[in-house]
What does this fold into?
Amino acid sequence: MRETQLAVAVVGAGVVGSCIALALQKRGAAVTLIDRDEPGRGCSYGNSGAISPGSLAPLAMPGILSSVPGMLLDEESPLHLPMRYLPTALPWLLRFVASAQPSRVALSAAKLAALHAGAVDRHAQLARELGVPELFVRRGHLHLYPDARALAKDAGTWRMRRYYGYQFQQLDRAGILALEPRVGERYQVGVFMADHATIVNPFRYVQAMVRGFARRGGQQRRDEVQAMTPLADGRWQLRTAAKADAAANTFDRVVVAAGAWARRLLDPLGVRLALESQRGYHVQFDGGRDTVSRTVILADRKVFVTPMEDGLRVGGTVEFGGLASPPEPRRAAILERIARETFGGLEALSSTQWMGHRPCMPDSVPVIGPAAGRPGLWLAVGHGHLGLTDSINTAQRIADGMLAARPG
Ligand SMILES: Cc1cc2nc3c(=O)[nH]c(=O)nc-3n(C[C@H](O)[C@H](O)[C@H](O)COP(=O)(O)OP(=O)(O)OC[C@H]3O[C@@H](n4cnc5c(N)ncnc54)[C@H](O)[C@@H]3O)c2cc1C
It folds into this structure.
């Protein structure tokens, strides 16, 4: 009965918030999903679509300190920090470097392994349930390296994958060409992870989630949450731009899934997260989707090449630059040049560019669960480079945690 339902607001309809809204609804909560924009238009719009549970290594690995000069000075570096943003980013960067200690890396990898587990099968099932099975493609991921020396630099990452039971197969040039005949000469060594998968239109996937949620009676609102106030009776009141009446904006629980913007809501409540935007870019060629037949990772350049349903997407780069400054077209141009150098046949194709804000914690581990000292407030923030992959298990954790004590 409606009266006994828990009223939950989910703030943010990216892939994380939308997945949470669905999971809470399935478990009997009365959910309102609020986004100031069209659902899925944030970071979840333009990602590379990889369902990548074998990505266990946090971004800050031992030796990261030696890459800092390159980040600052080399315009082409996959990690880029403009000098002007250094003072702002410094406190976060210090925590990032500290989390590269081997013992902390091992702890982060263990947490990520637990969060990633089973993600491929669960996304397959969700895509079927939502009526969009064509968006889920399981053809494996092919990681490419110029030579054995370049592969050896990633040896720690591959050891981690083996330790956590992920299967992979090393390939020579002939093996690479047997899978992907258009890969250029630069790449002589490959590693194939056959059981990994791809969502071939991440935006349409989020939209399908929200449509499914609305079909089952979920409330979806386009509105900006400006502030959140705990009430004496334990509920939460939201102040929103659309000035809905107080009753419509009062909830038993609130889940903040506001991506890289979450601190604007949490800082005033004293809930402090070390959250920083790592700006990522994609270039999407109109057509060219037959260039590769699966997700291909140019591992030495940290670039993902994905045959999306509407063109060939080339995504990557990490740029520190904050939420306010406009996209830097040079970053996308680097991706475009790398793609044209690596694969033949892209010269004649036009392309579009996109930039998104990855919500990143220093240790690469997202914050999922109740906020300390703020009863009724839940967090699902900081999914960094893997929010699509981890949306599904994040949603499960939030639903289990919030509704475990209540009858389903
Ligand atoms: C280039 C690139 C490639 C990537 N590739 C992959 C990949 O292959 N696989 C993978 O797993 N991950 C990938 N990622 C990461 C993934 O896209 C993110 O981790 C994920 O999209 C984060 O989802 P989110 O829902 O937390 O944030 P978002 O999608 O940004 O959603 C947050 C939402 O909150 C809303 N919002 C914020 N503040 C408010 C407010 N006050 N009121 C109302 N609404 C608000 C915003 O409008 C937004 O819609 C990639 C990212 C980038 C940039």
Remarks:
- Residues 1-62+100-133+198-274+361-408 form a domain with the FAD/NAD(P)-binding domain fold (CATH 3.50.50.60).
- The first helix runs from residue 15 to 26.
- The chain has a mean pLDDT of 95.
- Residues 168 and 193 are 5 Å apart (CA to CA).
